[in-house]
Design brief:
Elements (H helix, E strand, L loop, with lengths): L21 H23 L8 E5 L2 E13 L6 E5 L2 H7 L7 E7 L9 E8 L7 E14 L4 E31 L8 E2 L19 H9 L3 E6 L4 E4 L7 E8 L3 E5 L3 H14 L27 H16 L9 H17 L1
Parallel strand pairs: 7-8, 7-11
Antiparallel strand pairs: 1-12, 2-3, 2-6, 4-5, 5-11, 6-7, 7-9, 7-10
Helix pairs in contact: 1-4
The structure holds 2-acetamido-2-deoxy-beta-D-glucopyranose (2 copies).
Length: about 350
């Protein structure tokens, strides 16, 4: 019948000594060597206190249906424009040109968060007009929830100019988050929950693209439209509108944040623990000091040291109880063990 191990336990050997001995001093030195160098290594090797960390999250983005578009129709400074701001449209006068617009936002992977905005805009033009450049501004509401709750209003701005008049412009890009400082790890962060364009203002300066971009770029948290490959198509047929097709994706972002107190402590703790290598060998070293044994508790002097050392060697040399041996053999070996410990 085959034997298998059902239970095992280590035997503990205790060495006692009084406080003012070389053994105690040695133990203290060993303890210091065990704890202090690893702490120094962990502390001096940078990144002991975690300053910044990051996580991934797909933002909740909604197009706010606010649009401002300016198209240069000649190289002499003529332009047509259109916006969703009534005050601006009133100020535009004859330059106002109402396009046909269709907007669609889609949740492609059905996870409850929108992934793609498709905007199609057809700008009617007179036969004498050509489009040389396009400026387009769209506003979004942008929200993050995983660590701190971030609520902000942001924009996407794109501008493209060509020396050759175009018939169509195709833009396909991503709305990327730009952080100047890490976000807090919790709480509500809504200082940028303010309109990017003040649509209630009757003054032209509120709709000046330069002013809008300047105050927007002063923020620590912004979104930018990353569109590396705009496609400008030339050759517009007479009487047909200028077409603007825009696709904007809302990708998963890697967001930097400042870790909280407990996360910082956790990482410092992990580093200290992982650089400490030999924590359990100190006990067996104290037996080197023959004076360690208090008087009366056994043979004193060099003889005691010898016998202790001898027992250690005998313990380590003793063949282990074989699992294949009989129960009687195992019992014998166990009683021999007990006798050894009694001698000690
Ligand atoms: C953000 O602003 C919008 C509109 O101004 C408002 O409805 C909303 O309650 C604000 N959210 C927070 C968290 O301040
Ligand atoms: C923006 O970041 C700078 C540091 O880069 C900081 O001093 C300033 O307080 C931040 N502003 C806001 C409104 O958080």
């Amino acid at each position: 019948m085959a034997f298998y191990e059902v239970y095992s336990h280590p035997a503990v050997i205790r060495y006692r000594t009084s406080v003012c001995t070389k053994a105690t001093l040695f133990l203290v030195i060993v303890l210091c060597l065990t704890y202090i160098p690893p702490l120094l290594v962990a502390f001096r090797s940078q990144g002991f206190w975690l300053k910044q960390s990051s996580y991934e999250e797909q933002p909740v983005v909604r197009f706010q249906y606010q649009t401002l578009m300016v198209a240069a129709t000649s190289t002499q400074g003529d332009y047509v424009a259109w916006s969703t701001f009534p005050h601006l449209n009133n100020m535009l006068g004859p330059s106002l040109r109402i396009p046909a617009v269709s907007v669609r936002e889609e949740d492609l992977n059905q996870d409850g968060k929108l992934d793609l905005l498709t905007l199609q805009l057809q700008l009617p033009l007179r036969n004498t007009e050509e489009v040389y450049s396009v400026q387009l501004l769209l506003t979004f509401s942008y929200q993050l929830f995983r660590m701190s709750t971030v609520v902000m209003q942001s924009l996407a701005f794109v501008q493209l100019a060509s020396p050759v008049p175009g018939a169509r412009l195709f833009l396909s890009g991503e709305l990327r988050l730009q952080q100047r400082t890490p976000l807090p790890h919790r709480g509500l962060y809504s200082i940028y929950n303010v309109s990017v364009v003040d649509g209630s203002s009757p003054f032209a300066s509120a709709y000046d693209l330069e002013n809008i971009v300047r105050s927007y770029q002063a923020r620590n948290l912004t979104t930018v439209l990353s569109c590396p490959m705009p496609v400008w198509t030339v050759g517009r047929a007479a009487g047909s509108p200028f077409e603007l097709n825009v696709e904007i994706r809302y990708p998963v972002e890697v967001i930097a944040y400042r870790p909280g107190f407990w996360e910082t402590i956790k990482f410092a703790w992990i580093q200290t623990r992982s650089s400490r290598r030999f924590p359990s060998q100190r006990g067996s070293l104290t037996c080197c000091d023959p004076a360690a044994k208090p008087p009366g508790s056994g043979p004193a002097g060099p003889a005691a040291a010898e016998s202790t050392a001898e027992v250690l060697i005998r313990l380590s040399d003793r063949p282990a109880v074989r699992a294949s041996g009989s129960a009687e053999q195992a019992e014998e070996a166990m009683s021999a063990d007990r006798n050894w410990f009694r001698q000690l």
